[in-house]
Amino acid sequence: MDDPAVWSQGSEPDVVRPFVMTGGRTRSSRADVRMETMVELAYEAGTRPSLPEQAAIVEACQGGPISVAEVSAHTALPLGVTTILIGDLLDTGVLEMHLTDPTDIEVSALTRMIERVKSL
User: Fold this and answer.
1) Phi, psi (deg, nearest 5) at residue 76
2) What is the pLDDT of residues 60-99, one digit of tens each?
3) Which residues, including other chains, have CB under 8 Å from residue 58's CB and lie 6 or more apart?
4) What is the pLDDT of residues 5-56, one digit of tens each?
5) pTM of the prediction?
6) What is the C-alpha separation between 94 and 60, in angstroms, rounded?
């Protein structure tokens, strides 16, 4: 960013600080939104997001249920920012959430994970 050639051409990089995207908030209003939480578009979503970052989240959710972590990866937004913005979209009814409890993981899934780790 300190390259004089870039600045001499009059072009500035498009950088938006995370606190600008979240309105200065560092936590979501919803404590139930975690990185493994599955979200999808609500069937009656009539509200259009006003922020471009929220529009990108809505676009990432077009294909069906997706985890918050995957939304973060698809939109290239930090996980904390994604969590806050998804909380806002849940509050306005644009997205809906599928509740997941991390303790509900099946024993067979844990066994497969342990076997794969051992094989490394």
Assistant:
1) 60, 30
2) 998 889 999 999 999 999 898 899 999 989 988 899 998 7
3) 41, 45, 49, 89, 94, 95
4) 444 455 555 666 666 666 667 677 788 888 888 999 987 656 677 788 889 9
5) 0.66
6) 13
Map residue 41 onto helix, strand or coil: strand
Residues 35, 83 contacting (CB under 8 angstroms): yes
Give the rounded distance of the alpha carbon of 3 from its chain centre. 32
Q: Which residues on adjacent β-strands are paired with residue 66?
A: 39
38: closest CA among 8, 14, 5, 68?
A: 68
DSSP 52-99: HHHHHHHHHTTTS-EEHHHHHHHHT--HHHHHHHHHHHHHTTSEEEE-
Residues 18-119, CATH architecture: Orthogonal Bundle (1.10)
